[in-house]
Design brief:
heterodimer; A: mainly alpha; rod-shaped; B: mainly alpha; two-stranded antiparallel ribbon; two-stranded antiparallel sheet; about 65% helix; disordered N terminus
Chain lengths: ~110, ~260
């Protein structure tokens, strides 16, 4: 997550923080405790679920709206469900792709 | 059993008008929800006011916390949008701090004699407003910056022409689902966490009420509540962060709509 793009000039404070960081890594190599990891995994899962769900609400809603306007019932709803499902899968796939990109960047 | 206890698990989400008001036939009462939004706002202003008062080079305790928040969100914004995204920093930072404080304040137990604690983010009206605000900024800035080429967002490159209408439709639905997914996620997390806490608390009361051996068993839901409360504190941070970073990711589309 952190992005040390070298935007500060080296000052005593920054030098101290890098030494502190190194010392911390030695003292506690796996600082990520199990609870935090589980919480983050839960957050990720929730995110994927809500993204799928949201698209599956929007699709049918648009379909129903079209039915109301154009009187094409029930074909708007049927199409909306299909498109909404596809959009949900697309959301999930893209989120996973972004996550993997983030993990690779964060792994250093 | 639970029914005859003082409060069911859903009662904490009820909205009561504190100062009834109507404006042009619309109910705009000052409710407990309004009160806790103001408390979150006041807490944020007070915290950053006090924390940044001394503006020391070597920060004190409060100033360190404020700086950690600042750098955390600034890194998030730079990472997701790039340096030019920093013009959205005030918005993302405000969003993060507000959601975080609203989530955390809701976890406080009610102090007797004061109004009941209320989690404003457990109401979909609140989270949906925040989600719509985020997506409105994305749409308005997207069109302002890119003009009509913002619509290229819905036309991914490398798609055969006969498939394009369908893919664009899917992209549009996917875009429209963003504020809804933002809203549902935050609201569902807060709602679920608080219901679980109240249900476990109900177990304790029922067990203690049953007396004898059952009173001893009450220790287990109590330990459960402690664990869930700690998890909820984590969730409060996590959901505020997720809302902020997703806003950044969506803003990134608006800033960089041309090149995809």
């Amino acid at each position: 997550m952190s992005d040390p793009a070298g935007k500060h000039d080296p000052s005593p404070l920054d030098e101290f923080s890098s030494r502190l960081e190194a010392a911390r890594k030695v003292a506690n190599p796996n600082a990520e405790d199990a609870d935090a990891t589980r919480g983050r995994a839960m957050g990720k899962g929730f995110r994927l679920a809500s993204e799928l769900l949201a698209a599956m609400i929007v699709g049918p809603a648009l379909g129903l709206g079209l039915d109301q306007l154009a009187g094409t019932s029930p074909w708007g709803l049927v199409g909306g469900i299909l498109v909404g499902f596809a959009a949900g899968i697309r959301n999930v796939a893209q989120t996973m792709k972004q996550d993997r990109k983030g993990d690779e960047a964060g792994a250093e | 059993m639970l029914r005859q206890m003082a409060a069911g698990p859903m009662e904490q989400f009820e909205i009561h008008p504190l100062v009834p008001l109507t404006m042009g036939g619309v109910d705009v009462s000052f409710t407990n929800s309004t009160l806790w939004m103001w408390i979150a706002l006041g807490a944020a202003i007070a915290f950053f006011g006090v924390a940044t008062r001394s503006r020391a080079l070597i920060p004190g305790r409060l100033q360190s916390v404020a700086e950690v928040f600042y750098e955390f969100i600034a890194d998030t914004v730079r990472g997701a949008i790039g340096p030019e995204g920093m013009k959205f920093f005030p918005y993302v930072f405000t969003l993060f701090i507000y959601i975080l404080l609203a989530n955390l304040l809701g976890l406080f137990p009610t102090i007797p004699g004061l109004p009941h604690t209320f989690t404003t983010t457990s109401h979909i009206a609140v989270t949906a407003s925040l989600g719509l605000l985020s997506i409105s900024i994305v749409i308005i800035y997207g069109f302002y910056k890119n003009g009509l080429s913002f619509l290229k967002l819905f036309v991914p490159s490398g798609v055969p022409i006969w498939l394009l209408p369908l893919v664009s439709l899917i992209e549009i639905v996917s875009f429209l689902s963003r504020p809804i997914s933002l809203a549902i996620r935050l609201f569902a997390n807060m709602l679920a966490g608080h219901i679980i806490l109240k249900v476990f608390a109900g177990f304790i009361i029922s067990l203690l009420g049953a007396g004898g051996v059952f009173g001893v068993i009450a220790i287990f839901p109590f330990l459960g509540i402690i664990a869930i409360t700690m998890l909820e504190i984590l969730v409060a941070f996590l959901q505020a962060y997720v809302f902020a970073i997703l806003t950044c990711i969506y803003l990134n589309d608006a800033v960089h709509a041309g090149h995809h």
